[in-house]
Specification:
It is a single chain. This protein is of the alpha/beta class. The chain has helices at residues 18-22, 28-55, 60-77, 92-102, 104-123, 135-152, 154-158, 169-178, 185-204, 215-219, 221-228, 231-245, 253-257, 274-279, 281-303, 313-326, 339-347, 354-370, 379-393, 397-400, 407-422, 425-447, 475-478, 503-518, 530-539, 541-545, 554-569; strands spanning 85-86, 336-337, 449-452, 460-469, 490-501, 522-526, 550-551. It has a five-stranded mixed beta sheet with strand order 3-4-5-6-7, with helices on both faces. A two-stranded antiparallel ribbon has the order 1-2. Strand 5 (490-501), helix 24 (503-518) and strand 6 (522-526) form a beta-alpha-beta unit. Helix 2 (28-55) runs antiparallel to helix 17, helix 2 packs across helix 18 (354-370) and helix 3 (60-77) runs antiparallel to helix 16. The longest helix is centred in the first third of the chain and has 28 residues, at 28-55.
């Protein structure tokens, strides 16, 4: 007979996509809003999907197929009403490194395994654990990834002719430095125009940003239409037409990758064996970790952008897991929630996951109809788009604010940033968490205090405990017996402000009790809080000490201590 989950001590998450709830009361008005938002997001996602794939060392169609398949599955099965899934800039460095070290086939296998891990994390209700990663680590590795994305685009921005770039930060710089003589000024001009245009475009059509355009133009019908056009599409179309009409000698998608297939993605299950899977443990963990962090952070940001219900983190992880397991069957790359496209979706008026479904279908239609046009897109224009994405990804103002924070915060943020740039995300998060834990232990041990009560009866020493008595603070208890004044017959520990007691703290109290017994000093406890008292009782310490030596108040403890002190003094 199958035991229920609760009988096994495990409570599994219920698989219920948010789409089922959002379709209740769904009407034509909401569909119109979702359809409009989906079309807008698809237009934004088109150049980003190709750019992310190319920057990751893959073909542009792999990014498009990921945006279509993963975007559809995440919207269909996810736990957020408005999150848009697909290839993300944060994966560029990770995917490029995996392809460089392990090959494309192993990237697909690692992505599938990461999908399984993500599903299991959500199924076991571990989605909330991502919130325990300190914000300093998140900012550090996010800024580090943004720097690496920008570095990866310098080759196409400068139009350099180089061999395939290595995954290592310093090696990339060395390779590009040795090939600076192949600098292409036309490619550089396109990239700079693209980046500058993307920075300027939204400011042209908004009064609240001090637009330099005349008010009549901003408020005109043409101005309102232009304000709704996504900047990346405007830059891509204008710069592609300019390069084509002027016959500029720059590398394009077609010259490097050939034509994008004007067809549905082909099913091709990656070859799998356990020997290979064992070697892919670190890449799998990296993809799963980054996917979980990015998707849940994106969902939390989306919760604050609109009136929709808050997301279900466990359902979202399960959907991300399914998407990352299925997408490699069609040659796709890792996928996660994407902040820029999700924010665009919310601002465009999305009300349900239907908008994400429309976004995926519109992308599919574009691929089937207009894929041949992509061969003319200059790679320098895509580099400009990715540089803009990296600029927006990084929280650069946090570096300027570091002087306002503690030393531990600065060390964790800068350490995570440096480790992400020099090594990789997994090392940065692991070391960052170790540093965060170490600083937390030091801070909590400093907060624990043992303060004397100066006005104590003769022969009686009263000490008040503050904070948490745990393994990092036991030295202050271990030294307590040697610090008692001469003639002390009774030690009273007032524990009203002791909020927590762990096994190491309990052992320190037991050792203190034994030391005091050898010296003929009685020990009394008073005003013990619930958690420490339960610990004392379950361990048998309270029984060994005796009920008479545990008082409800300090006055009661002093009343009980007086005869003990008199008896010891005689």
């Amino acid at each position: 007979m199958k035991l229920p989950d609760r009988a096994l001590g495990i409570e599994l998450a219920r698989f219920r996509p948010r789409l089922l709830d959002d379709l209740a009361g769904y009407d034509r008005r909401r569909f119109g809003a979702d359809a409009g938002a989906g079309i807008t997001v698809a237009i934004v996602a088109l150049p980003l999907a190709m750019a992310f794939a190319i920057a990751s060392g893959l073909k542009p169609e792999q990014g498009l197929f990921t945006a279509i398949i993963a975007g559809l599955l995440i919207s269909l099965l996810g736990g957020s009403s408005v999150q848009i899934g697909g290839p993300a800039g944060a994966f560029i460095v990770i995917v490029y490194g995996i392809v460089e070290r392990y090959g494309l086939a192993n990237l697909l296998i690692a992505t599938m395994l990461a999908g399984v891990l993500l599903f299991v994390l959500g199924w076991l209700k571990l989605g909330g654990l991502v919130r325990y990663i300190p914000v300093a680590i998140v900012i550090g590795f996010t800024n580090g990834i943004a720097v690496l994305i920008a570095l990866s685009q310098l080759k196409d921005l400068l139009g350099l002719t180089t061999p395939k770039l290595p995954a290592d930060f310093f090696s990339q710089i060395g390779v590009m430095a040795r090939h600076l003589d192949s600098f292409n000024p036309w490619a550089f001009a396109i990239g700079v125009l693209c980046f500058g245009g993307l920075m300027l475009w939204p400011r042209l059509w908004r009064r609240d940003t001090g637009s330099a355009l005349p008010g009549a133009l901003v408020d005109s019908g043409a101005g309102r239409v232009a304000a709704r056009l996504p900047g990346p599409i405007v830059a891509l179309v204008t710069l592609t037409l300019g390069a084509l009409l002027l016959h500029l000698p720059v590398e394009t998608i077609g010259s490097r990758f050939g034509a994008i297939p004007q067809a549905l993605p082909r099913f091709d299950f990656p070859e799998f064996n356990w020997a290979t899977a064992k070697l892919l443990f670190v890449p799998t963990l990296t993809i799963a970790l980054l996917g979980a962090i990015e998707s849940l952070l994106c969902a939390r940001i989306a919760d604050n952008l609109g009136p929709q219900r808050r997301h279900d983190p466990n359902q979202e992880l399960m959907a991300q897991g399914i998407a990352n397991f299925v997408t490699p069957w069609f040659g796709g790359m890792p996928a996660t929630g994407t902040i820029a496209r999700t924010a665009t979706n919310v601002r465009a008026g999305a009300t349900s996951p239907v908008a994400g479904i429309v976004h995926a279908l519109v992308l599919l239609a574009i691929v089937l109809v207009a894929a041949p046009l992509a061969v003319h897109v200059p790679l320098a224009a895509l580099a400009g788009i990715l540089l803009y994405a990296a600029w927006n990804m990084g929280e650069w103002h946090e570096f300027a604010r570091l002087r306002h924070f503690s030393l531990s915060y600065r060390v964790i943020l800068l350490g995570s940033f440096a480790l992400t740039v020099i090594f990789d995300l997994t090392v940065a998060v692991e070391v960052g968490l170790v540093l965060a834990c170490a600083f937390f232990i030091v801070r909590m041990s400093a907060l624990f205090r043992v303060d004397p009560l100066p006005e104590s009866p003769p022969g009686i020493a009263v000490r008040r405990l503050y904070g948490a008595l745990f393994f990092g603070a036991v030295t202050k208890i271990e030294a307590l017996a040697d610090e008692l004044p001469a003639g002390t017959r009774v030690l009273v520990l007032e524990m009203h402000r002791l909020i927590s007691l762990d096994a190491s703290g309990l052992e320190a109290l037991s050792q203190l009790h034994r030391t005091l017994q050898r010296r003929g000093i009685a020990l009394l406890l008073c005003e013990v809080n619930e958690q420490p008292l339960e610990k004392l009782r379950r361990s048998g310490f309270a029984t060994g000490l005796g009920d008479a030596h545990i008082a409800a108040s300090l006055a009661d403890a002093l009343a009980r201590a007086a005869p003990l002190a008199d008896a010891a003094g005689r």
